[in-house]
Design brief:
The chain is mostly helical. The chain contains twelve helices and four strands, in the order H-H-H-H-E-H-H-H-H-H-E-E-H-H-H-E. 29% of the residues are buried. The structure holds heme C (HEC) (4 copies).
């Protein structure tokens, strides 16, 4: 009888001490940290209504991906530099800016755990380039993505992009034929075009979000024309040879690599 009572008390203890007062059973196993009285789940998510660790930790955001919440911590800023360098906004809306060729990350990160986002960067989807990121790079990027998601207002825009795939047209489009052996591009017109990877992924080339080096101007149809005629007239050390395209093919390629306004987010700070 005494043993049963003791067991009952032990079972109820977390509810009384933590559930009743603080409402978060995380505190049954973890100490409180950080100054403010914020709820654990407001930063880490998880399920605060249980003491079963697997359930409590479902959807967890790890501490090292929450460094953006620490005042003066450089992680999110360094992650944002990686977002720029890898050109993630060629395809994703991040912090309210970017093309809508792939899911809007501001919306996605609100429900994705650290584990799910880490896996998405470790083993990218077929239409996403593999940046071969290391652990440190992934951690910085996730700080930037979670920080952006916590600030941005994904509003009424749908998180899922629309790809219009038509298999027959895909084989014949001039990008697939002329550029596809060496390049890939995610496009609204035809989904993922091209199969090559010896040249860069050209998704969103003619949009403001394609990464161009600090000293080179953004890509324009005119610059692309000069490039195809002779890449070394644009970049003296280029390893791409000239590609012969007819004016009609050139126009189609420009259309394929352009992104029109409903497919991108360009708030006030951009002209
Ligand atoms: C039954 C005890 C228990 C409960 C309840 C519990 N945790 Fe944990 N938690 C642990 C243990 C043990 C570890 C370390 C081992 C592991 O990673 O599973 C851990 C690890 C963690 C980590 C580090 C994960 C990592 O890999 O970096 C975080 C963050 C965390 N818990 C947050 C929470 C939050 C938030 C809650 C409530 C929603 C919670 N925990 C509820 C026992 C618990
Ligand atoms: C304001 C956001 C915030 C709140 C609220 C918060 N944490 Fe954290 N937590 C962090 C940050 C940031 C770190 C990482 C600190 C570091 O790496 O130096 C962290 C680290 C941890 C760790 C260490 C393991 C890891 O993942 O690095 C655990 C466990 C943890 N928190 C549990 C909790 C629990 C339990 C609560 C509620 C009592 C809580 N946290 C509330 C932001 C928060
Ligand atoms: C060429 C386009 C492209 C680029 C560039 C790109 N991604 Fe992706 N990404 C995708 C596609 C496609 C998916 C799969 C989901 C979809 O179809 O929208 C995806 C998925 C993701 C997911 C998983 C989303 C989910 O639903 O869980 C994350 C996280 C992500 N990308 C982050 C990044 C980051 C960070 C960068 C820059 C380092 C980046 N992506 C660059 C195309 C791209
Ligand atoms: C035989 C392979 C090959 C073909 C075919 C090819 N390219 Fe390239 N392309 C490359 C390589 C390799 C690079 C990287 C060279 C460099 O950066 O100087 C490159 C670079 C580029 C760049 C510069 C991108 C950047 O970020 O700097 C553009 C733009 C480009 N190609 C457009 C095209 C277009 C459009 C076509 C089709 C009309 C095409 N390429 C066909 C191999 C190819």
């Amino acid at each position: 009888m005494a043993a049963a009572l003791l067991t009952l008390l032990l079972l109820l203890a977390p509810l009384v001490t933590f559930g009743g007062v603080r409402g978060e059973l995380c505190l049954a196993c973890h100490p409180r940290h950080g100054g403010g009285g914020e709820r654990c789940s407001s930063c880490h998510r998880g399920n605060p209504a249980t003491t079963r660790p697997t359930v409590a930790h479902a959807g967890l955001v790890r501490g090292r991906h929450l460094r953006y919440t620490l005042r003066g911590d450089p992680a999110a800023g360094q992650g944002e530099l990686l977002v720029e360098r890898y050109g993630c906004r060629r395809c994703h809306v991040i912090g309210g800016r970017g093309n809508r060729l792939a899911v809007t990350l501001d919306a996605v990160v609100r429900t994705r755990s650290s584990a799910a986002l880490t896996a998405a960067l470790d083993r990218p989807a077929a239409a996403m380039p593999d940046f071969r990121l290391d652990r440190a790079g992934i951690d910085l990027l996730l700080n930037a993505l979670y920080a952006a998601g916590s600030r941005a207002n994904p509003g009424g825009s749908p998180p899922q992009p629309v790809h219009f795939r038509s298999g027959a047209a895909r084989e014949r489009d001039p990008f697939s034929v002329r550029c596809g052996p060496c390049h890939r591009a995610l496009t609204h017109e035809g989904g993922l075009l091209g199969t090559g990877s010896i040249g860069p992924n050209l998704s969103g080339l003619l949009s403001p979000f394609y990464p161009s080096g600090p000293s080179s101007p953004p890509w324009s149809p005119r610059r692309l024309t000069a490039w195809l005629r002779n890449p070394r007239s644009v970049r003296p050390w280029s390893t791409m040879g000239p590609v012969a395209v007819t004016p009609a093919e050139q126009r189609q390629i420009v259309t394929i690599l352009s992104i029109s306004p409903p497919h991108s987010e360009l708030p006030g700070i951009h002209p």
